[in-house]
Amino acid sequence: MPPILRLNAGVVLSRKSGEIREREIWVWGEQRSFSAFPSPSPFYAEDFDYKTPNFDQNQNLEEYKENEDAGKISVKAFFLCTSVDLKSMQAENSGNVIPPSSRSSNYIALRFCDPPLQTGSVFVKNASCCRYMVVFQYGSAVLFNVEDHDAEYYLQHVRRYASGLLSEMKKDDYAIKEKPLLVEDMQGGPDHIILKNLDLDSIRIISSVLGQSIALDYFVSQVDGIVEEFTDINRGMEKSGTFTMDRKKLFQLVGKANSNLADVILKVGLFERSEIAWRDAKYGQILDYLREEYEVAQRFGNLDYKLKFVEHNIHFLQEVLQNRKSDLLEWCIIVLLSIENVIGIYEIIRGSTGIAI
Questions:
Q1: pTM for the complete prediction?
Q2: Where do the DUF155 domain residues begin and end (predicted)?
Q3: Do 259 and 204 fall within a single domain?
Q4: What average pLDDT does range 138-143 have in this prediction?
Q5: Cα–Cα distance for residue pair 4/173, rounded to 1 Å
């Protein structure tokens, strides 16, 4: 039985008689420190209650962020080379290749899953463990549900079959959020797209736009380099009034500009029709939204405008080189005619001298 403790709580003012009395309090158990004075005023109570909702609001905000991140799937697009041998890659990774749903042959889709979970005698594959990679023939690779520290492992699979590896790889990040209760099939957001259900065709559509976008960034940077070279040439002509570029160097720039334009149109297939989007309107909606979000048409328009600037400079410099060549030929003709005249005069003088003798 715990000991009985007698505590003097001090003096208090009795509400009924107004007399000051000494109150003794008897408690069971341990001695505890507390006050027998009246409870805090309503002012302090309201102040205490005022702070409580802030704590609940912060907690709700953290829970909201956790719920938002729970259904978020990261998407990473890379452009690491100029060509990928898809046939060899498909043959050596046949166990991971997803059968195509269209006749397009410029990409392959692969699924990587962790070992299945065993429950009794039934093997259950955990869908959240699956990682997806879509590789395009022109050099782009798009990863789904792959963390940053694991991305390099999957890119090594691509490098084994790649040619024309870039010294500096280009990268872009995106995200997908799944909401089964979404009224529409899709909904856009900043740097993410919300889908009612993420299936394989959605992965193909999203990866096609992201792969084209990251490849377009590379080709735009290449054309920017060509534009910069012609800008330096024009500035040199402005200062010196002469043009000193070698004809071979000019032809190399011409070939580089034409090959970049051909790669964008033919290899990347920027304007090719998607069979998946053609069959189902919801995939067409995703395709149109992403192409508008990444401004694919506008960026290609800027690329085409820069290539026209390059073409104009090429025509001008070719005319300069052609005029130089014409001038050289004219001087050669003049020299040859002069030599012929000298030889003719010599023969005339020699013949007249022989007759006189």
A1: 0.69
A2: 133-303
A3: yes
A4: 96
A5: 70
